[in-house]
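Protein modeling request. Please complete all fields; requests missing the sequence field cannot be processed.
Requester role: graduate student
Desired output: 3D structure, token encoding
Chains: 1
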Amino acid sequence: MIKYFKEVILVAIEKEEDMHIPLKKYFEDLGYEIQSEVKDCDFVAQKNDELILIELKMKFCLKLIYQAMERQKISEDVYIAIPMPKGGSFKKAWHQMSNLIRSLSIGLITVNNKGEVKIHSYPEEYNRRKNYNKKKIFLKELNSRQTNINKAGKKGKVMTVYREQSIIVAYALFENGEMKRKKLIEHLNFQKAGDILYQNHYDWFFRVSKGIYDLTETGKEAILKYEFAQELYENWMNKKTDF
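Delivered output (243 residues):
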């Protein structure tokens, strides 16, 4: 059980992603590794076998409760995080909210405009049946990531393992020029590279001729956009680890 409270960093909480930096600093100080936007979960803190999942919202709502309950299929340590409301924890609405989430075995965290992170309640023992297949998929996404650029609560595109893999494939073409599909797979030691070329989910690749692929202009722009693309590719070539 986490019992910790400290001032983290001055920040104005105007949108969900503004809570990311204080929460990240808070849990990193406790020795957790942080990832965000993993399989629709806003914020993940992992240490050894401990897996903490946190859903962020600007205010309490039923959608937040539904999301937290869905995360309980993966881990028993689920929290919701909101900005500290005006009036603090003295209003009747606060006590009603606290009682509701406590009865559902969900923890409550607040972040205020001074950057203070406070845990008001902790998940109690959770006995609902787990979805182990869903947890396996979640952990595969979490543990396979090589970058950490997502911000919890940020809207729009997020960095996923699939996008990371696509960047690696794209950079291989960027670095070496057009390549045969089979040679690219061998070069990266990555069988899934062929599927990424074929699916072409981001319109980064085009078939020059039978079995030969190169980058589209969109693909070249993407490589230049992702400043870490070269490092991601070089790390892959050093490890050549197939997911």
